[in-house]
C-alpha cells in the first residue's frame, strides 16, 4: 500500500517539474495542492473484517476533512485530464449496535479525472480510481484494525476564483465491499485548491 502511495506522489511531482512554464498560462494546467471537507455516509451490512463477519447492518453520517495534491493538463482545447492523491479523516466515525461496531479512520485516494471546460474558468469533470481505508472493528471485547481496498467513482465542478485559486464541489461513491458483505461510502466534498 505504501509503495503505491509513494509511486503516485512521485509521479505527480515529476509531472509538475517536467511541465513547461508556458503551460501555466492555461487555466487548468499545472500542479495544485488543496484542502477539502464535507459530508460522508458509510453504509455497511455484515462486512468482513479481521475478526470475521461483523454482525452489523447500519448507516452512519459524519463530516470529513482532508488534503490533496495533483496535476492537471489541458490535452486538447477544453479537455483536461489529471491525477490526484489525497488523505481524508472522518470527524466522528464509530457506529454500531451494542454487539458490534465499525470505526472508519483515515482513507487514502488515488484517482484520475477527465473534464470539459464549460467556460475558460469552469471545469465539469468525472473522477475514478483506487481507495484504501483503515477500519477498526469490534465484536464484543474483540478488536481489530485493518486496511480495506476499494474503488471510487464520482464527478463535480471546479471554478477558478483567481489565477491561482479554484474552488470545487463533487460527489463520490466508494465501494469497499468484500465477499458477501457490504461496505459503501457516499461523500459530498467541497474544496479549495492553490495552483502553481
TrEMBL record:
Domain of life (superkingdom): Bacteria
In this chain the Outer membrane protein beta-barrel domain maps to 10-196
According to the entry, what is the taxonomic lineage of the organism? Bacteria, Pseudomonadati, Pseudomonadota, Alphaproteobacteria, Sphingomonadales
Q: Which GO terms describe its cellular component?
A: outer membrane
Q: Where is the signal peptide?
A: 1-25
Which family would the database say this protein is a member of?
A: Belongs to the Omp25/RopB family.
Which key words tag this protein in UniProt?
Answer: Membrane, Signal
Origin species = Novosphingobium sediminicola
* Gene3D superfamilies, per database record: 2.40.160.20
Q: Where in the cell is it found?
A: Membrane
Q: What is this protein called?
A: Outer membrane immunogenic protein
Amino acid at each position: 500500500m505504501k509503495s503505491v502511495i509513494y509511486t503516485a506522489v512521485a509521479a505527480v511531482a515529476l509531472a509538475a517539474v517536467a511541465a513547461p512554464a508556458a503551460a501555466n498560462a492555461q487555466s487548468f494546467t499545472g500542479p495544485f495542492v488543496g484542502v477539502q471537507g464535507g459530508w460522508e455516509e458509510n453504509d455497511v451490512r455484515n462486512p468482513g473484517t479481521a475478526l470475521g463477519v461483523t454482525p452489523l447492518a447500519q448507516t452512519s453520517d459524519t463530516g470529513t476533512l482532508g488534503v490533496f495534491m495533483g496535476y492537471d493538463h489541458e490535452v486538447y482545447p477544453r479537455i483536461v485530464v489529471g491525477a490526484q492523491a489525497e488523505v481524508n479523516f472522518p470527524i466522528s466515525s464509530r457506529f454500531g449496535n451494542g454487539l458490534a461496531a465499525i470505526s472508519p479512520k483515515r482513507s487514502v485516494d488515488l484517482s484520475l479525472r477527465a473534464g470539459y471546460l464549460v467556460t475558460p474558468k469552469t471545469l465539469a469533470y468525472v473522477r475514478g480510481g483506487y481507495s484504501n481505508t483503515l477500519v477498526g472493528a469490534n465484536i464484543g471485547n474483540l478488536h481489530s484494525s485493518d486496511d480495506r481496498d476499494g474503488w471510487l467513482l464520482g464527478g463535480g465542478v471546479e471554478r477558478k476564483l483567481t489565477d491561482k485559486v479554484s474552488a470545487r464541489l463533487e460527489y463520490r461513491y466508494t465501494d469497499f465491499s468484500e465477499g458477501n458483505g457490504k461496505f459503501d461510502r457516499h461523500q459530498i466534498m467541497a474544496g479549495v485548491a492553490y495552483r502553481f
